[in-house]
Task: structure prediction
Amino acid sequence: MSDSLDSSSQADAPGSMKRRTIVAGAAWSIPVIAVAAAAPMAAASPPCPQFASAASWTAITTGQLRVHPDPTYNNRVGGTYLALPENNANSFLSVQDRNLQGGTTTVQWSTVFVPVSGTAYTFTFVTNTNTTLTDSQTLNMRINGTTHWAGITKPTAGGPTNNLSGGQTHSFTWTAPSNAAVTFAIVFLVPGVTNNPNRTNDDIRIGLPRISAAGCRS
Result:
């Protein structure tokens, strides 16, 4: 991956593709998700539960995590698979993560969500992507390990149908089967690039999902 979606300008990693410079803030501004004005009676509704700061989520990684010579990119998950909380902890960024050793590197950020049984929750989120690189990256939204939404930066046969490109707003709806707490996870999947230093994976940033449901105000 390049750091085209990063607002800082750092030196190239050895053997990496030349990194790009952008206008500060242009590629990484996370649009505000508009919320319609509530009707007067809705004012008495309780607020919908919302996710806490990205900095409080838990990271789990599998697969290769290469060490970067620039400490800026030796991040919270131990390598250059950056999926780190940024922008005042309201988004996650996966950048600078060229996977040369095959297999798929996975970076999962998760938190606990306590639903109300039978409630249909809609999770709305914004993505920004850099798709100018040679290989894809996939983004999954999972609840208790089940994928409820998936997107990919370059369409592949049998892959996710949601195509990630530029700035986009997405959503999916999930109905709680019980009042039991669930694990909500944002998962970045970075496929190997066949041990070729001239290939590198695309970049993805995702803003914290916004939760809405009938009977509560968002």
Q: What stands out?
A: The longest strand covers residues 120-130.
